[in-house]
Design brief:
By secondary structure, this protein is mainly alpha-helical. Helices cover 71% and strands 10% of the residues.
């Protein structure tokens, strides 16, 4: 199915004037564009003060891994430790994160989500799914099927990028 999807994308790309050589750039631009537009729409629609992309990513990570250390969060997010500390301070002031001393290493801090953070992420996920569902409904059936078929390949692409980013 993945090979078929790549062939389909190449076929569609050529129909739309995109050459094989520019396909990687076109794909990257499309992915970034979709992500940016989803974030902008969600920021406009969320009732609470807007969160930046890095803040949302950190919240999602802490909700998925409560008790994560700042250094581990920085590594997982590919950010500098001081950048994550700044994000933690901002999110703690807004009532979304609690920072506690790690009992195993009193020099380290563990991060915990607050109920407000968990509620905000649930609302954000629901709104994001609704937004994407509405936009998918506007596409032709063949395009929706192509996107469904692309999800495994996109996950593999993300995993490859993640693994390659972790190599020394």
């Amino acid at each position: 199915m993945t090979v078929l999807w790549v062939h389909y994308l190449c076929y569609r790309a050529n129909l739309d004037g995109v050459e094989h050589e520019t396909f990687p750039e076109e794909l990257a631009d499309a992915l970034v564009g979709v992500q940016r537009l989803i974030r902008r729409r969600l920021r406009r629609e969320m009732p609470a003060p807007p969160l930046r992309g890095a803040e949302v990513e950190l919240l999602r990570l802490v909700v998925a891994r409560p008790g994560i250390r700042i250094s581990d969060a920085a590594k997982d997010l590919y950010l500098a430790g001081n950048s994550v500390s700044t994000l933690v301070n901002q999110l703690a002031r807004q009532g979304y994160l609690v920072r506690e001393t790690d009992p195993a290493d009193r020099r380290a801090a563990r991060l915990l989500p607050t109920p407000a953070a968990e509620a905000r992420l649930v609302a954000w996920r629901r709104r994001r799914a609704d937004l994407v569902r509405q936009q998918l409904a506007r596409l032709a059936e063949a395009d929706r099927e192509a996107l469904v078929a692309a999800v495994p390949a996109l996950r593999l692409l993300a995993e490859n990028l993640r693994e390659e980013g972790e190599e020394p």
